[in-house]
Amino acid sequence: MMPFVLAEFANLEQILPLYVVLVGNHAQKHLARPEGYPAHQIFLSRSGKGLFKIEGRQDLILTPGTLLILPADQPHEYYPIGSDETWDLGFVAFNGSAALPLLNQMDELIMMARLAPNFDDLWSQIESLWHLISLNGEQAYWESSKRIYSMLVSVLEGQSAVKKPTKNVYPSGQSNAALQTAVKLIHDHYNERLLLTNVARAAGYSVQHFHRLFVENFGMTPQQYILQLRMRRSVQLFEEQPGITVEKVAEMTGMETSYFIRMFKRTYGKTPKQYSK
């Protein structure tokens, strides 16, 4: 086990475009963060099993060999499930001016439990970061900045090996009409509280089969599709109606205001108020 190391940067966060905030691993217990964590996080599940509850998302289960990327300030909680084995969870938190552009490159990986084909390499990089920061002085932070960048690229590299080609058109075959029905329902009701069960039912599939089929054909989950649709519509509203309030845009896109602000900032790199100005 690596007791977590909290990096104290002596104002290096003003210089480094990417820096490590904390890193470590342990037998994970229940942890709730209703306000989120002020840095972006990568979690690696090495053994055991745990459940993540993320505001506005379906619950995620992390099993051995999986990873999760969680953006800053996203409310969440997580805890082990199953009584027969300890949940060994590794984590590294990072921030900096370069962090958000890198996360934008990973958009379809954010807040999704993913198998990591290069899991052992990623785990070794967490261990390397931990030893570097715990055993060295201020100079370690320069090197750790390079290494966290390398780790993020490694995450992308590993996922590219298993990523299926995305399609921006409706698929051919029997699922075509069903998926078109589902997508039409999403576009007609994106500003309401859309339940995946209702969308799947409209397509004539179980939730699990619909989710799998949607990802295979559109390269993203239904929830990600809905969020992208809402974000695009919010930008249109700000452009079409100068002076419209953030609260009104959130209401018109079917989102709770604080959640809308977080998702808008994660998507566009600035708050709705900053954008509207």
From TrEMBL:
Pfam families: AraC_binding, HTH_18
Domain HTH araC/xylS-type, residue spans: 180-277
Molecular-function GO terms, alphabetical: DNA-binding transcription factor activity; sequence-specific DNA binding
Keywords, in A-Z order: DNA-binding, Transcription, Transcription regulation
InterPro entries found in the cross-reference section: AraC-bd (IPR003313), Homeodomain-like_sf (IPR009057), HTH-like (IPR037923), HTH_AraC (IPR018060)
Protein name as it appears in the record: AraC-like DNA-binding protein
Source organism (scientific name): Paenibacillus phyllosphaerae
